[in-house]
Amino acid sequence: MIEPREFRNTVGHFATGITVITTINGKEKIGLTANAFSSLSLDPPLILVCIDKRSGSLKALKRDHPFAVNLLKKSQETECWRYAKSSGDKFEGAAYKLSEDGVPILEDNLATIECVVADIIEGGDHYIVTGLVKNASYDDQGEPLIFFRGKIEQLELAKTVEL
């Protein structure tokens, strides 16, 4: 079987966007950086995000619990690192508003997807959290913040071609 480091280096060649997952646990605001995110289904509208089993943020994610996926734009690298740390008040000094469910929504995102937890599935050293999408918004002029080969990158968009 492939060694974990070699596997990580290999899958690191797949460029991904960077998200910040936000939720609440009582009055506590919770946020964590994740790049293992994907759309899952159009009907019903579902997404998935993979979260390390060691994450303290998992305690808040239960079936039918609200959360948001904040897709970061290239100007939000500071937000990426803010929510990647494991301690302290990650929201201190952050620009956010609260959703109707009280979930923090980061301001000036590339896109925001508001969900409720549909299911939590065990997957190796992570949990796969699926979310039923309740609301979504996006900035169609923004450019994404990218994770590639273990580094944060900024993608410059070329002219788009209609397919």
UniProtKB/TrEMBL annotation:
Q: Which residues form the Flavin reductase like domain?
A: 11-154
Q: Which InterPro entries does this UniProt record tie to the protein? A: Flavin_Rdtase-like_dom (IPR002563), NADH-dep_flavin_reductase (IPR050268), Split_barrel_FMN-bd (IPR012349)
Q: Which UniProt keywords apply?
A: Monooxygenase, Oxidoreductase
Coiled coil stretches, renumbered: none
**Organism superkingdom:** Bacteria
**Matching SMART domains, A to Z?**
Flavin_Reduct
Which GO molecular function annotations are given, in alphabetical order? Answer: FMN binding; monooxygenase activity; riboflavin reductase (NADPH) activity
Task: Tell me which Pfam families the record gives.
Answer: Flavin_Reduct (PF01613)
Provide the transmembrane region boundaries: none
Q: Describe the family membership recorded for this protein in Swiss-Prot or TrEMBL.
A: Belongs to the non-flavoprotein flavin reductase family.
What is the recorded name of this protein? 3-hydroxy-9,10-secoandrosta-1,3,5(10)-triene-9,17-dione monooxygenase reductase component
